[in-house]
Every structure is written in C-alpha cells, then in structure tokens.
Amino acid sequence: MKAIDTLTPCPCGNPAGYAACCGPLHDGNVVAASAAQLMRSRYSAYVLKREDYLLASWHADTRPASLRLAAQQPAPTWLGLEVRGEQRIDDDHAVVEFVARYRLGGGRAHRQHEISRFVREAGRWYYHDGELM
Prior knowledge:
YchJ-like_M, 3 helices, 18% helix, alpha+beta, four-stranded antiparallel beta sheet
C-alpha cells in the first residue's frame, strides 16, 4: 500500500485532502453516499494500491478473486480523474462516466474512458461493471 500525506489533495482531486475525502471510506469509517463518491474513492484506491478496498467495493456478482496490483509491470502512475457525470437510474442503480489518466513506465499518457454501473444493496454502493469507451 502506498503512503500518502493526509494534508495533500486527495488522489481523486478533492483539495480538502485525503483524510477528509477518500481516507474515511478506505478505512471503513463511512460508506459512499453516491455512486460518484464511490467511483472517486475507487480511483484513489487504485492510486494507493488499496486492493482490499477495491475488492470490498466491487459487487460480489462480478468481483474477481484478485487484482494483482502489486504485480503490474510496469506499474501505472495515475495522473488524474475527471468524473463527467452521474445518472441515477433508480434508488439502487446508477451510472458514472469518468476519464482516468495514467502513464505506464516512462511512456506517454493514456486515458481510460469508462461508463461504470453501480448497484446499492443494504445502503451500500458497489461497483458492478463498466464499459470502456
């Protein structure tokens, strides 16, 4: 797991800082209030290599056994997140469109543009699946 200075902006881009943004979600102290908030916290978890949080916030129907983040070679350097929008389908289903930028090794920057689907069960949002654009 990658260390982070709690006074710096959160990896998801919130200038309030990690301790006031994604940190409490990662530590299990609060649950995401929306699919977009869960999306931001999942991006931060990728940046910080919090595989435990990523798997816990992934719906059981589609969750892989492991992500093997520590084994990624070259490891991605995450450059930023843009949440383009959230659409609530109903009380328990939402879609979030986002673009995450990253670099592999010393190479050029890449973009992951995705439409992600989220499901809420027992008051908790889960990432279900996504479609790359």
